[in-house]
Amino acid sequence: MSEQSGSIVGLFRKCEHGESLRPEQSVFLEKSFGIQGDVNGHPISPRQVLVVRDEDLREAAIAPGSLRENLIIQNIDADHLKPGSLLEFESGAKIRLTFYCEPCKKISEFVEDWKNFKGKRGVLGVVVESGNVAIANNLQVTTAIFKPLSEIPYERFLSFVSKIPAGKVVTYKEVLLGMGVDRSYFRAIPQYLKKTSTDDYPLHRILNSRGELIPYVPDQEQKLKSEGLQLQKIGQSIKINVTDYLWQANVIATLS
User: C-alpha distances in angstroms, 21 versus 10, 18, 141, 181, 187?
Assistant: First the structure.
């Protein structure tokens, strides 16, 4: 465990889908959600905020906001801004850092060699205590407070699925959110389901995007009925009224 102090030099919020991030003088960090008014905030997501070091932006000659970051901080070493660390702000707001933000084509306009930019696009995190943060505010980073999330999406899939309680279900949408991945992973979910043991993980509590049972999940109908869920047969498919049984997951609880 090690501590280091720094300050905020940039804040950004995305207010609408399809819009660019807006620079802000201050934002409110909402516990278990992210930045208040930001479209990427969500109670189930482990990637509520993206924190980037100002030193990395300057070294790569990248304009603030280009990496789609929310917070830019300075005077914090790279070996402190890493998954598992805790960021504490003057207001009492706190962010738990979860995993590194993966480089992708979205930043290729600003980073020519984006595939080799790993570790410098910042670290994702979740808000564990609410509070306002503003430009020039001081912050403290403490390492090794939490267990980092895996950098491997499949391992995050397993971790999320293991937390789904009896009598509740999720659809592919919630699985993707809980893993902290984008929609391109939608096609990977069936493969994850097929290679995961139903003896070790409650795969029967996962439904497809239409709320239907999944043909290649063994004994799904029987297991759901045994947990008290009401099923409906519609044509060739068996469905569940998702709104009645949807797991209202909270990322802080799922990471504990």
Answer: 12, 10, 25, 20, 28
Return the DSSP state at 136.
T
- Residue ranges of domains in the chain, CATH in brackets: 3-142 (2.40.33.20), 153-248 (1.10.10.10)
CA Rg value for the chain: 20
User: Residue 159 and residue 134: Cα distance in Å, rounded?
Assistant: 34
pTM of the model: 0.92
Residue 249 three-state SS = coil
Report how far residue 254's alpha carbon sits from residue 256's, in angstroms, rounded to the nearest whole number.
6
CB atoms < 10 A from the CB of 234, how many?
10
What would the pLDDT profile of 69-101 be if each residue is shown by its tens digit?
999 999 999 999 999 999 999 999 999 999 999
Question: Tokens 């410098």 sit at which residue?
Answer: 120
Q: Are 46 and 255 in contact (CB under 8 A)?
A: yes
For 209-226, what is each residue's pLDDT tens digit? 999 999 999 999 999 999
Pairing of strands 49-53, 71-74: parallel
Q: For 252, left (φ over 0), alpha (ψ -120 to 50), or beta?
A: alpha
CB atoms within 10 A of CB 130: 16
